[in-house]
Design goal:
- The protein folds into three domains: 17-196, no CATH class; 232-257, no CATH class; 265-364, no CATH class.
- It has helices at 9-12, 20-23, 26-47, 54-64, 77-92, 101-116, 136-143, 145-148, 158-170, 198-208, 216-237, 260-263, 267-283, 291-320, 328-343, 356-364, and strands spanning 132-135, 174-177, 238-240, 257-259.
- α3 packs across α5, α3 crosses α6 and α4 (54-64) packs across α6.
- The strands form two sheets. It has a two-stranded parallel sheet. It has a two-stranded antiparallel sheet with strand order 3-4.
- It contains 16 helices and four strands.
């Protein structure tokens, strides 16, 4: 059961006061992450077409989305302490080295702005943070962020990032804690409490009800029936592999046959994709006549795709009830974008060349 602190002065007057556990729960954490993602998208869109100074542009986007009023959402001292700690931590998690450089910059701007705009002269004194806890490995990577801003798109951000980091370091804002792999944050994971609505909980309860535990014999019979069913299905749906001289090797399941989904890749879908890809390459003049414009457009598209994959990872992996720390789709996309940034090339548009579909087409074509 979540810890319930003693009522505050405002609570004793009959006002509603949010408990600290609300700010470590999925109700607040997931919503705040969505808000940060919206801030990233809005600033990226404005930055790509505006000539305004980068940090001045960020402040205008910040105000337009109402971030400046967030400090006045919580007044109770104990709840506000957790609210401030979790909010800064959620900004900080988007500045880690595994994030895209542009994402790290925007998250750093948000962290700095949120920390620096804490009310200090309000009529009713409000709790304010004096230091931001940060793991020592994360601190080292954050200080090296200006060196990662090497592309023509990111270079204008470098002096602003350097100034913000220098200001935070000089004011001794960061409170260094042990390395991130030691789990020094409290609470260690975010969100700590998961909210489940009544519909979801009822469905889970119905699913968990069983007539009785199956015996070892029943489990063995069920496994054998499933294996036999797969074997029969493979026999029915497999086709002979054409030989080099145009004939067939045979008709029995084995080395001479292959499942039809593998032997006959979706040729029409592949053809349509390649046609659309060729049209897009011609539209953006790839290889480019103006490398900067094309590279900027490709980076913008890549940013959108990686954000969608991150959102998918956050929402889908918890549903699988596994502890798998990796997400193959996102890792592959990040690798393609990194290779595009370092070596040039088509980036995400070149993913097909390394896929199983392309390999099957080359082997069976």
């Amino acid at each position: 059961m979540p810890f319930s602190p003693a009522p505050s002065t405002s609570a004793s007057r009959g006002d509603v006061t949010l408990q600290p556990s609300f700010f470590t729960s999925s109700l607040y954490v997931l919503s705040f992450r969505d808000d940060i993602r919206t801030l990233l998208h809005a600033y990226h869109e404005q930055y790509s077409r505006s000539s305004e100074k980068p940090f001045a542009l960020f402040k205008s986007v910040w105000r337009a989305q109402g971030w400046e009023w967030l400090h006045f959402k919580v007044f109770d001292p104990r709840s506000r302490e957790t609210f401030m700690d979790v909010s800064h931590r959620l900004f900080l998690e988007r500045t880690v080295k595994t994030e895209a450089p542009f994402t790290r910059v925007v998250a750093l701007f948000g962290l700095y702005t949120f920390f620096s705009t804490q009310p200090s002269n309000s009529e009713v004194p409000l709790y304010s943070m004096k230091h931001i806890p940060i793991p020592i490995d994360h601190y080292s990577s954050l200080l090296s962020l200006p060196k990662a801003l090497t592309s023509e798109m990111l270079a204008p951000l470098r002096p602003y990032v350097t100034h913000v980091l220098q200001t935070l370091v000089d004011s001794e804002t960061f409170y260094i804690i042990p390395s991130s792999d030691l789990g020094a944050f409290n609470p260690r994971p975010l969100p700590r409490e998961l909210y489940v609505d009544s519909i979801t909980s009822e469905a889970a309860l119905q699913k968990s009800k069983k007539a009785g535990r199956p015996s070892r014999r029943d489990k063995a019979k069920k496994a054998k029936a499933a294996l036999d069913g797969i074997d029969k299905w493979m026999h029915k749906t497999s086709v002979p592999i054409p030989s080099a001289n145009g004939g067939n090797h045979g008709s029995t399941l084995g080395d001479s046959t292959m499942h039809y989904l593998l032997a006959q890749p979706p040729a029409q879908t592949l053809h349509d994709y390649q046609a659309h890809k060729a049209d897009m390459m011609r539209a953006i003049e790839f290889p480019p006549a103006n490398p900067y414009n094309v590279h900027f457009a490709m980076e913008q598209v890549s940013f959108e795709v990686l954000e969608r994959l991150r959102q998918l990872q956050e929402t889908e992996i918890p549903k699988t009830k596994t502890d798998a720390p990796t997400f193959a789709g996102r890792e592959r996309a990040e690798r393609a974008v990194r290779e595009m940034r370092e070596q040039g090339g088509a980036g995400l548009l070149g993913l097909l060349e390394g896929s199983g579909i392309e390999e099957m087409r080359m082997n069976t074509g």
